Amino acid sequence: MKIVIIGGVAAGTKVAAKISRENPEAELLILTKGKHISYAGCGLPYYLSGVIEKPEELIVNTPESFEGLTGAKVLVETEVTKVLPDEKVVIAKDAQGQEMRVDYDKLVIATGADSVKPPIPGIDLEGVYYLRTPEDTYELHDALKEGNIKRALVVGGGFIGLEAAENIDKLGIRTVVIDMAPQILPGFDPEMAAFIENHLAQRGIMVFTGTMLKELEGDGRVERAVTDRRAMKVDAVVMSVGIRPNTAFLRDTGLEFAPNGTILVNEKLETNLPDIYAAGDCATTKNAFTGKAAWSPMGSSANMEGRVLAHTLLGEEKSFKGSLGTAVVHLPGLNCGKTGFSMETAKAEGYDPVSVTAVVDDKAHYYPDAGIFYIKMIADRETEKFLGIQVLGEGAVDKVVDLGVMALSFKATLSDLEDLDLAYAPPFSTAIHPFVHVVNVLKNKLDGRLHSITPTEYQEGKAEGYRKIDAHIEPAGLAGVEYVDYAKLADKPPSMEKDEKLLLLCSKGKRAYLTQNRLGSLGYKDTLVLEGGTLFNNIEDN
User: Fold this and answer.
1) 61-87 pLDDT, tens per residue?
2) pLDDT at residue number 495
């Protein structure tokens, strides 16, 4: 059986590697347009600052080494221009422009996606860069090292754009990020994204959302970026406004496509055409929770899809369960991760979502490098089914996110999650794991033990009419705000009237919750805890 694979990098090479291990006699041919068969696309931003020191570290395999490992024949700089399903033939051009016809028994399309190049004036000026291939990265890296770039603009506030901004900023270059969307990092709820934007600003990376790039100006080389808000001087522009699947050459094949141009496949990665399969960034699979079509252009998804596809080609019964929208990003002094639904997407799916935002220790508070997590957890109000989580912090946010992945994968309820026997020792966690801690807080809210207001509700003014009360361990010096010491409430009754509406403030929310319980026992019934406390919320804005 002759298997032809169009494209390499992640999905295509994974298919070939897995098949070769299971069936060394398989005839495998990889045709790829690029110069490289396998490279670390997700690692490209880290070469800019020197975190990854040598360019060869980004190359996972050369064509020669991959052929030696797998037995697959690899043709690089070979562009497939047409697929003829009825004839089981692909037509391709090599680096010299010579056309070739290649027959196949099974065809795998793993052509990935390319950076979107917006049609704006000046987009082809020197000094405009992308971060999709090693060559893109080498070019920007070399320009940064020359020392002539003092001001850089990153267009696009997604994961790659922010990783690029972080690594350019490490070089002492003034870095600005713009995005036409109302927030950075799609998939995070707005207040979480706003917290990240403020954090980046404090670290010297300014972020301007709701800002569209209209034109790039310069005499041969980019010198100025014009947006719909203002113009700014720039020495380099990094474009990271999204990706587009490389599927245009397949439009006349009879393949079924999703609206975004990706190829629709089933759980076995089969297309609608016999003996043609697709995986990676060029394919739309499904959401593992809802079962609906979903696009997951991630290296992790591409590798998992490639593995399942290899099993399918080997004649085995294997299915790709789908993706959950899991992602994690490393930023200056802050890691950010998420999985599952946001409040908006949960509502769109017909759920009645309820959330809680909690600030919790990431390990035993007395341990030397202890920090905090800002965690937003979402569940369905009626069923208490876990729906999603977003985590910010200096520590291992991925640990908390991965627990959320497991909860979603097994469609767990909060009750299923509240007594998990998770690993504990002071260097690693708190005695009640941060994930379980927040499960308990959300359970308290749903059970009516915690009466609180979310950061979003607070920003919307839903605490209007409530008197602010300082419930910190010690007075926080909040202007015009009375201090109440929880530990002394039983002996020293507060001065507030029992029918007053009280908004309880502390640094993380825990002390305010304790104060709420004590005030409740004293007859105070209309109190609200501000979730996330003063560490997450800007109290002066309201």
Assistant:
1) 999 999 999 999 999 999 999 999 999
2) 85
Q: Does domain 452-541 have CATH number 3.40.50.970?
A: no
Second CATH level (architecture) for the domain 2-40+55-113+244-313: 3-Layer(bba) Sandwich (3.50)
Other Cβ atoms within 10 Å of 119 Cβ, number? 6
Q: Catalytic: 42?
A: yes
pLDDT digits over 412-470, tens only? 999 999 999 999 999 999 999 999 999 999 999 999 999 999 999 999 999 999 999 99
The tens digit of pLDDT for each residue in 374-422 reads: 999 999 999 999 999 999 999 999 999 999 999 999 999 999 999 999 9
**Dihedral angle over CA of 367, 370, 376, 382, nearest 10:** 0
Candidates 42, 282, 336, 506; catalytic one: 42
pLDDT digit string, tens, across residues 151-208: 999 999 999 999 999 999 999 999 999 999 999 999 999 999 999 999 999 999 999 9
Q: 336 — phi, psi (to 5°)?
A: -135, 130
Cα–Cα distance, 320 to 8 (Å, whole number): 20
Instruction: Report how far residue 145's alpha carbon sits from residue 140's, in angstroms, rounded to the nearest whole number.
Output: 9
Give the Cα separation of 337 and 399 in Å (integer): 9
143 vs 236: CA distance, rounded Å: 9
340 and 387 Cβ atoms separated by less than 8 Å: yes
**What fold does the segment set 128-241 form as a domain?**
FAD/NAD(P)-binding domain (3.50.50)
CATH no. of 333-446: 3.30.390.30
Q: Supply the pTM of this predicted model.
A: 0.95
DSSP string, 296-363: ---HHHHHHHHHHHHHHHTT-------B---EEEEETTEEEEEEE--HHHHHHTT--EEEEEEEEESS
Asked whether this chain's domains 2-40+55-113+244-313 and 333-446 adopt the same fold, the reply is no
CB 257 within 8 Å of CB 222:
no
